[in-house]
Amino acid sequence: MKLSDFDFSLPPELIAQHPLAERAASRLLVLRKASGEIEHRRFPEVLHFLNPGDVLVLNDTKVLPARLLGRKKKTGAMIEVVLLKALSHACEWEVLARPGKRLRVGTEVEFGAGEMSAVVMSDTAAGGKVLHFTVEGDFHAALDRLGQMPLPPYIKQQLADKERYQTVYSKNLGSAAAPTAGLHFTQELLREITDKGIDIVFLTLHIGLGTFRPVQAEDIAEHKMHSEYYEVKPETAAAINRARERGNKVVVVGTTPLRTLETIADHTGRVPSASGWTDIFIYPGHRFRAVDGLVTNFHLPKSTLIMLVAALAGRENVLRAYQAAIAERYRFFSFGDAMLIV
């Protein structure tokens, strides 16, 4: 398929610049993947489309405040660093840096009032850098003080409250971006879902910025995804497998648990307990083994994420749903409204 097959025109004013005051106050577009039928709802009504015995799968990753603003020690030139992945050493990280050309191997950078510093150890094949950090005290405590949330470039405002870029169930620190479909859930809504007899389970996939890397190839099959670390515990795998054996639905919240389960499921849809790295790229033609439904946000044109959604619900259905969302003035992207595909 061609990259242009996943393009659409979005009025810029529909790009949400900030989260709503109440997490669950967002709208919900429901798309029936078999018929293409569209319904316009409020997000808490997601409960009406889940049945007792179904499983709802959430990604409990927690976002690092991974954006650091620093200065070159010698010249004072400003440098921006985004942490991508911790390496074998506790204070050694693969990062993106701007302007990267200024950061040659051996360059020293300071952050804050000198309480954190780093030296460039090497370049990476993907165009990033490897930095070794030195900090007074605990690295993550210093990062929490000095770092900012690595918001997508289409969001022009910094968050007043870092927690609004975390889900209420975030637990395992390690992501460079939020699993934004989960931002709509409150603890109260999660209790209501559980009280209805729906099993809520968790897995972890630490999101790297490579997920949002633009697709350059016109033939989308030539695009290569970056690897991301996942972990699925035995109790999560068991709950999913029991639901499938009963004939209940497995509904995932976000594209990250979908990619995780489709990575590890066997040809029957059975899911093992597992951990590892995935670079799975899902686009139309993919045969889904483990996932029946998806809660997701509205994604960028020509992105790997809209291709994944199109694989689940059909390209024509998805593009038609997006046009309906635009006509109804839904809010788009990370802080925007939600879509449920069932």
Characteristics:
single chain, alpha/beta, QueA-like, 27% strand
Briefly say what this structure is.
With 342 residues, the protein is an alpha/beta fold. The protein is built from 6 helices and 17 strands. The two termini are 24 Å apart.
> Helical amount among residues, as a percent range?
10-25%
Query: What is the topology, as strand order, of the major beta sheet?
Result: 2-1-17-16-14-3-12-13-15
- Roughly how many Å is the radius of gyration? 20 Å
- The fraction of residues assigned to DSSP E strands is 25-35%
The helix/strand order is: EEEEEEEEEEHEHEEHEHEEHHE
**SS-based structural class?**
alpha/beta
Number of domains: 2
Shape: globular
CATH superfamily of the largest domain: QueA-like
Main beta sheet = 9 strands, mixed
The CATH architecture of the largest domain would be 3-Layer(aba) Sandwich
Residue stretches low in confidence (pLDDT < 50, at least 5 long) are none
N-to-C CA distance: 24 Å
